[in-house]
Amino acid sequence: MPLSGEATTTRSRGQYSTSKLLFFLILSFGLMYLDYKGQYLNKVRSYISVTTYPIHVGVNAPKNIFLKLTESMGQREKIILDNQKLKTENITLGSQIQQIYRLEKENKRLRELLDSKPKTEDIFVLAEIVTENPDPFKHRIIINKGSKEDVHTNQTIADSKGIIGHVIRDQIFGSEVLLITDPEHAIPIEVARTGLRSIALGMGSYEEIKLSYLAVNTDIQKGDILLTSGLGGQYPAGYPVAIIDKVSAQEGESFLEVRAKPFANLTNINEVWVIQRAVDGAIEFE
């Protein structure tokens, strides 16, 4: 039976597809053979790769952007953590620097105390201030050395610049000190320039003490140095106490008005010397 026109067309198409497939297979194998034997297609492949590069970039762009964002976020977190760490280290270093400054100041004060230690047989014990009396009319301090360290009543207290006062009450681990500026305090002194002896009295001011009952014709002047005289045995002789900063005479008065500024900085006491055994006679400072 003869084939219809539609069947003939379908058969022709099938034969054409088969022939086309065979053609491309033969072509592919031929190209592969040529590439294997002579590398003839390298230039062609190079041209094709240039043409397809934008396509590869476009396809991989979302992935690359995601990776870069992830990396950027990771770096940002690391930078934040590093910054916080640096801030913490900066605070720590600042605190340490502050400690260094404080230690340097303390060492300086200790060196001053050690350098000012007199050349004598007196025994010196270094003490620190624990507290001050809050009463403005009572100039007294508590130190951290007591009878346990052989610190007792009436022993002299001094700092690197001069006399501070003396112990009025001792306990096992601490002692109370009466300062030379307390209104109840009196200390025998001697004017270094003339040898004049007198009594210096506290006035309730940390900045000055006074000399009383000096006649108007007394040889005393501003800038004179007052030393401990050693009279009465309360204080050893020869220690600096104060410097005269005011001498005046009121008309009709029989006595001079004499004021002196203590050498010791009584408003900012940190460390002091406790003089445990005083030796009579003047002493020489280094």
From TrEMBL:
Keywords: Cell shape, Membrane, Transmembrane, Transmembrane helix. Pfam families: MreC. The chain crosses the membrane at residues 20-36. The keyword Transmembrane helix applies. Coiled coil: none annotated. GO terms for cellular component: plasma membrane. The keyword Transmembrane applies. GO terms for biological process: regulation of cell shape. Residues 129-276 form the Rod shape-determining protein MreC beta-barrel core domain. Belongs to the MreC family. This is Cell shape-determining protein MreC. It comes from marine metagenome.
